[in-house]
Write a structure and sequence with these properties.
Membrane topology: Multi-pass membrane protein
Distance between the termini: 31 Å
Oligomer: single chain
Number of strands: 0
Organism: Cytobacillus kochii
Strand content: under 5%
Number of domains: 1
Mean pLDDT: 89
Order of helices and strands: HHHHHHHHHHHHHH
Pfam family, one: FTSW_RODA_SPOVE
Largest sheet: none
Keywords: Cell shape, Membrane, Transmembrane, Transmembrane helix
Main location: membrane
Low-confidence stretches: 387-395
Helix content: 55-70%
C-alpha cells in the first residue's frame, strides 16, 4: 500500500537549499571576477538569468515521473545526437569556431548553446534505460549476458563520445566518467570490467611515458602536434612555461597560494587570469577567501554528493538508482577535474565548476541533472512490503 505523502514532504528542500547556496557563491565569485575580466558584459546578471531558467527547467522535469522520463529517453538521446552532429555541418553564421573548437551554436541572437552539456544528461538516461531493459529481457545472469550488456552500454556511449572527442577532450572525459560510474553498479561481472580497464590503463600509461620521455615517437607515429604536447609540459612545469602555455595555470597557482589561510577579502583580487569567471572561478574563491573559503566550497560539494548518494540508496526503482549514480559520477568528476586543474593536480581541460562557473549551457545542464533528482524524490513511492532484491544483480 502506498504511503500518502504531502507535496511539501516529497519536495527535496535540502537539495533546494544546497542549490541556493551555490547560486550565492557563484554570483559573488563572478561579481568579483569581473573586476579583472577582459569583457564588458555583466556576467552576474546573466548568471542570475541562467539560474532562473534552470529553476524553470527543474519544475518542468519534476512534472514527469520516472516511467514518463523513461519513455522519452530515446527521443531526448536522438535530439542530443542531432544537435551535436549538426555542429559539423552548421554554417559559420550558425556555429563558428572559438579557440580552434566548434562546440557552440553561437551565431544566433542570445546566449550560445553547447549541446554536449545536455548530451551528458541524455546519456545518463540512455545508459540507465539500457540496463533496466536488458535485465527485463535476460533474467539469467551469465558472463555471456553480461558481455552483451557491456557491448550495449559501450555502443550507446560511443555515440556522444565519437561526436565530441575530437573537439572537446574535457567533455569526452566526463562521458567516460559517467559510463564508468554506471557500469560499476550495473551488475556486470568483474571478469569483463577488469580486463577492459586494465588494458585501457596500460595503454594510457604507455602514452604518458612516451609524452614525457619520448615525445618524438608520438610526433612521428600519432596525430599529435607540438601545441598539444606543450600544453602537457606546461601543466607539468608551469613555472618554466609561464610566458606561454603555462600562463593560466601559473597565475591560478599564484592567486590561490596568495590567498593563504583566510584570503585577501571580497573584491580584493590582484592576480589577473583570463576568463577567470568560467573554468578558473575556483581561483577567485581561493584568492579572496583563502584555504578556509575554498574548503567551505569543497565541503558543500561533499554534502551534495552525500545527499545524492542517500537518495540513490533509498529509491526502489532500478532506473532511478542508475540515474542517481550517473548524476553523482557526472558532478563528482566535474568537481574533481575542475578544482584539480586549478591547483596543478590534473591537466587543464576546460571543464567548468558545477553550479559556480559562469555559463548558460553548463549551468542549465547541471540544473537538468538536479531536476531528475527532484523528480525522483517527488514521485518516489514507498511500500510497506517490497522485495528490492529483484532490482539488483550482484556481480
Amino acid at each position: 500500500m502506498d504511503r500518502i505523502q504531502k507535496k511539501n514532504d516529497r519536495f527535496d528542500w535540502t537539495l533546494a537549499l544546497i542549490l541556493f547556496l551555490f547560486c550565492i557563491i557563484s554570483c559573488t565569485a563572478i561579481y568579483s571576477g569581473q573586476t579583472t575580466a577582459q569583457y564588458p558584459d555583466n556576467f552576474v546578471l546573466q548568471q542570475i538569468i541562467f539560474y532562473s531558467v534552470g529553476m524553470i527547467v527543474i519544475a518542468a522535469i519534476m512534472y514527469f515521473d520516472s516511467d514518463q522520463i523513461k519513455r522519452m529517453t530515446w527521443i531526448l538521446f536522438g535530439i542530443g545526437t542531432i544537435l551535436q552532429a549538426g555542429l559539423f555541418i552548421a554554417p559559420e553564421s550558425l556555429a563558428y569556431e572559438v579557440k580552434g573548437a566548434k562546440l557552440w551554436y553561437n551565431g544566433l541572437p542570445g546566449p550560445s548553446l553547447q549541446p554536449s552539456e545536455f548530451f551528458k544528461i541524455f546519456l545518463i538516461l540512455a545508459l540507465s534505460k539500457v540496463i533496466v531493459d536488458h535485465y527485463a529481457k535476460y533474467t539469467m545472469k551469465t558472463v555471456k549476458n553480461d558481455l552483451i550488456l557491456f557491448i550495449k552500454l559501450g555502443l550507446v556511449t560511443c555515440v556522444p563520445l565519437g561526436l565530441i572527442i575530437l573537439e572537446d577532450l574535457g567533455t569526452a572525459l566526463v562521458i567516460i566518467a559517467i559510463f564508468t560510474g554506471i557500469l560499476l553498479v550495473s551488475g556486470i561481472t568483474w571478469k569483463i570490467i577488469l580486463p577492459v580497464y586494465g588494458t585501457v590503463a596500460a595503454v594510457g600509461g604507455t602514452i604518458i611515458y612516451y609524452i614525457i620521455w619520448a615525445p618524438e615517437t608520438l610526433l612521428k607515429y600519432l596525430s599529435v602536434d607540438n601545441y598539444q604536447l606543450m600544453r602537457i609540459y606546461a601543466w607539468l612545469d608551469p613555472y618554466t612555461h609561464k610566458q606561454g602555455a603555462g600562463l593560466q595555470l601559473y597565475n591560478s597557482l599564484h592567486a590561490i597560494g596568495s590567498g593563504e589561510l583566510g584570503g585577501k577579502g571580497f573584491y580584493e583580487r590582484q592576480v589577473y587570469i583570463p576568463d577567470v569567471h568560467t573554468d578558473f572561478i575556483f581561483s577567485v574563491i581561493g584568492e579572496e577567501y583563502g584555504f578556509i573559503g575554498a574548503s567551505v566550497v569543497i565541503c558543500l560539494y561533499f554534502i551534495l554528493i552525500f545527499h545524492l548518494t542517500k537518495i540513490a540508496l533509498s529509491v526502489n526503482d532500478p532506473f532511478n538508482t542508475y540515474v542517481c549514480v550517473g548524476v553523482i559520477s557526472y558532478i563528482t568528476f566535474h568537481v574533481f577535474q575542475n578544482i584539480g586543474m586549478t591547483i596543478q593536480v590534473l591537466p587543464i581541460t576546460g571543464i567548468p565548476l558545477p553550479f559556480i562557473s559562469y555559463g548558460g549551457s553548463s549551468l542549465i545542464g547541471n540544473m537538468m541533472a538536479m531536476g531528475l533528482i527532484f523528480s525522483i524524490r517527488f514521485h518516489q513511492k514507498s511500500y510497506m512490503f517490497q522485495d528490492s532484491s529483484k532490482y539488483y544483480r550482484a556481480s
